[in-house]
Amino acid sequence: MKIYKVITVSSVLLALTGCAKMPPVTSERLGQFTAASSFNVRNLDYEKGSNTVSFTKGKSCYEVNPRTMTYVSGPKNNLMQRAMDDAIRNGQKNGIDGDLIVNARIERTTEFKKASFFLNPDKRFECVTVEGDLVRITK
Asked: pTM above the 0.85 mark?
């Protein structure tokens, strides 16, 4: 009878402590920028490239464990800066002449990728996406 009580109490304590987990604390640098503004900048003259399409998009993600929300892999610091650099590089690869993104939109999203095997859980990624018009400043 005593062993039954010990097992019961141990099981209850294990169940309570296993369920009483606090979510992980997040502390991450999102990026460093040469220039940034949420207002219209006065006297900023820029031109879109000779191409009519100047829209570009970039993304930076890291993987987290879907059950515990702990970091698994990928770049964890400077996510916004990495996404901005990726957007500029993508635009330049597509032939857009520019090095400044205007009318920028920055989003933080969660994305999932299906596992290759049906018993494995889906992979979860925390991402920062930057999109906008890639332009060149005129002198």
From this structure: no
CB atoms within 10 A of CB 47: 12
In angstroms, the CA 129 to CA 81 distance is: 10
Find out if CATH 2.40.128 is the number for domain 28-137. no
Q: Is 95 left (phi over 0), alpha (psi -120 to 50) or beta?
A: left
> Along the 139 residues of the chain, how does pLDDT read in single tens digits?
677 776 776 666 666 565 555 555 566 666 777 777 767 677 777 766 555 568 899 999 999 988 888 888 999 888 888 999 999 999 999 988 888 888 888 888 888 888 777 777 788 899 999 988 888 887 6
What is the C-alpha to C-alpha distance for residues 72 and 76, in angstroms, rounded to an integer?
A: 10
